[in-house]
Amino acid sequence: MYIPRYFKVTDFDEIREFIQTNSFGTIVTTKQDKPIASHLPLELHKQGEDYYITGHIAYANPQWKTFEFENHNVLVMYQGPYSYISSSWYEQENVPTWNYQAVHVYGTASIMNEQELEEDLKLLLQKYEGQRKNPVLWENLSQKTKKQINGIVGFKIKIQEVQAAYKLSQNRNEADYNNIIDKLQNEQNPNSNQMAELMKKRLKKIANNDSSLR
Asked: Of 203, 171, 207, which Cα lies nearest the Cα of 99?
């Protein structure tokens, strides 16, 4: 991923938090040089010194077959809020642009066995159902429902490289930056409002001498 130096993020703790918050990702592999993509809920785990992304895919989806090839390279993409930035918000004439957050993870994939898949499903349900009034947890499901596990394929991706870009108008002067926040807050668009909050959060971290965001 092309990342101008202003927008490059290298703090893995920060990236890990982003992945966990924006965990619905896009997996890209290739078959006979043709890209294939699926959009899936994913989880990030640490095993020993290594990090893995885990998930499952429908058995009817042929993409899982690309995971069977040894050392098959996989790209996982995560995206956060994004917003159009009008150059009319700048002090001086310039071109419009977009602000966004994006993380690319590169690794190698392998197929889970049934026990690994079951454990991963338990964790996934606990994450999204644990705080609900009537949680749908693995241990509460009937054997008939559990048999639907035969219709999916679990996978894990060993992370080899991570690239992250947070384009939050870091290259603008203070007056422009603050005006962009004001304008985004007044947009009737949830993504724009979320971007304004991210930009304000960045200002607070700078005020707290977080040098990683400068």
From this structure: 171
The dihedral built from the CA positions of residue 145, 147, 151 and 155, taken in this order, carries a sign that is positive
Predicted TM-score (pTM) of this structure: 0.90
**Main-chain phi, psi angles of 190, to 5 degrees:** -60, -35
Alpha-carbon 37 to chain mean position: 15
Contact present, 29 and 66 (Cβ < 8 Å): yes
Residue 121 φ then ψ, to 5°: -65, -40
Residues 6+ away with beta carbon under 8 Å from 212 = 10, 11, 14
pLDDT per residue rounded down to tens, the chain (214 residues) = 999 999 999 999 999 999 999 999 999 999 888 999 999 999 999 999 999 999 999 999 999 999 987 667 899 999 999 999 999 999 999 999 999 999 999 999 999 999 999 999 999 999 999 999 999 999 999 999 999 999 999 999 999 999 999 999 999 999 999 999 999 999 999 999 999 999 999 988 888 875 444 4
